[in-house]
Structures are given as structure tokens and as C-alpha cells.
Amino acid sequence: MFNLMLQLQMLLAALSAFLPLVPEKQRTRAGVFLEMAAQALSAGSSVAANLDDLAAKLASVRAEVEAMAAAGRAVTPEELDAALIRVRAASASFRAALEIAEAGAP
Amino acid sequence: MRHPLRALALGVALAAMPACSSLQLGETRLENPAAAARTPDQRAYALLHAYAAIVEEAADIVRDPAAPLSLKRALGQAERAATPAVETLQIAVTGYMRARADYDAATSADQPVLERAASALTIAANRLSEAIAAADRPIAELEALVRRR
Contact, A94 vs B64, CB < 8 A? Predict the structure, then answer.
């Protein structure tokens, strides 16, 4: 997904290079359109990066659980503790970030 | 040429078509780690890690100044709804693992002790199954919000 966004951004950059060829009257409109598309793509890239990150994390957990299941192995208390610590840390970090976002809200 | 811009746009679109057709749009596929589990404790472990990963991504969205406040608030609500279910799951999986360890230890003990350990394990397994079922939906809702962004 991230690669797709990158390719679209490159296509947009290439299109911008043709802007001087656009007739004078329509150049401003074309420029505004390209700028809007660039902004949308830049927001899209950040979303795609987040989603790719989540996909990688979930795939890593799945691989770990698949290995456990294939070996017929039970979850150890240490592994469970590590999972619980991760959940607590993620929750605490999320709530702190949300508090900051709410404090900065108009 | 009467319409150079249109001709250019058409040319670019035609040139980009083969490349676009080879792209798999929306190719990011989110795995379901719990689907790989074969035992209740593995399933709970997968759910806990998946939940943590989703909350980590949700935190990144909340930190992003470009993300709309309405989405941040919706994520906050979804997290508040999911967290109690995940806490219940934590308690249930801890209880299940303790009951299973007790049962394993009781296999060499006499019959009444073994029966008590077996029924305690059955109860713990039922509680864990209920906790997993209860946590599934709120976690999926939080994940859907993170995806939808």
C-alpha cells in the first residue's frame, strides 16, 4: 500500500513537470488541482504507513502463534506476562496521547 | 492541437494503465493471529498481542495532528469499550493457566484430588471461552476504526 502511494506521488510529480505546457489561462487551475491531489496523497501515505505497520505487527503475532500451534506448545507464564505488559503499556500510551489531543482541541 | 491538456491527460492515463493494472490496490491485508491458534490459551495470547498492536497504531493516529478530532474521540470510545473486555480476558487466561498447571500437577495424585483439579480446569476453560467471545467484538470494532482512517 505504501509503495502504491509512493508511486502515485511520483506520478503526480511527473505531471507537475508538464505544468508549463498547459495554456496560461488554465495553468492556475491545473496547479491548484495538482496541489490538492498532492495534499490528499500525503495524508494517504501516512494512513498507508500506519496500516502497513499494523499489518506487519499482526503478521508477526500470527507467525508466533502458528509456530506454537505447530509445536503443540502451550503459552508459558513468561510469554503471557510479556503480552500483558505490552497491553498495559499500549493502553497507557494511547490514553496519554488522547489526553494531549483533547487538551489541544479547540 | 485544440485541447493539449486533455490530450496530455489522456496520454498519461493510457501510459499509466499497464502499470496500474499490475498494482494490487488496497493490498494491505491484516492477518487474524487468533485464527492460527489451536488451544484457548494460544487464542487468548494471540488476541492480547493483536489488541496491543491495534492500540499502538491507534495511539499513532491520536498523535497525528492531521487526524480529525472526531476520529480520535471515536478511537478513545472504542478503546474504553474494549479495555474492560481485555482485562477480563487477562484474568480468565491467567486463571486457566493456573488451573491447567494444577491439573498437570494432580495427575499423579489420588482420584478425588484429580477430579477436583479436572472440574476446576473445566470451569476455567469455560470462563476463558466466554472472555474470548466477549473480547472479540470490541477489539474488531477498534481495528475497524484504525483501518477506516
Answer: no
Regarding an ipTM greater than 0.90, the answer is no
Decide if B72 and A61 are in contact by the 8 Å CB cutoff. no
Helix intervals (H) in A18-106: 24-71, 77-103
Interface contact flag, A58 B30, Cβ < 8 Å? yes
Does residue A98 sit at the B interface (CB-CB below 8 Å)?
Answer: yes
| Matching residue, cell 484474568 | B91
Which residue ranges make up each domain of chain B? 39-148
DSSP designation for B38: -
* Residues shown for chain B: 149
The per-residue pLDDT for A41 is 60
Q: Which of residues 9-68 of A touch B (CB under 8 A)?
A: 11, 15, 18, 21-23, 26, 30, 43, 46-48, 50-55, 57-59, 61-62, 64-66, 68
Contacts of B61 (CB under 8 A, 6+ apart): A50, B67, B71, B72, B75, B146, B149
Q: Which cell is A78 given? A: 513468561
- Of A106 and B34, which is predicted with more confidence? B34
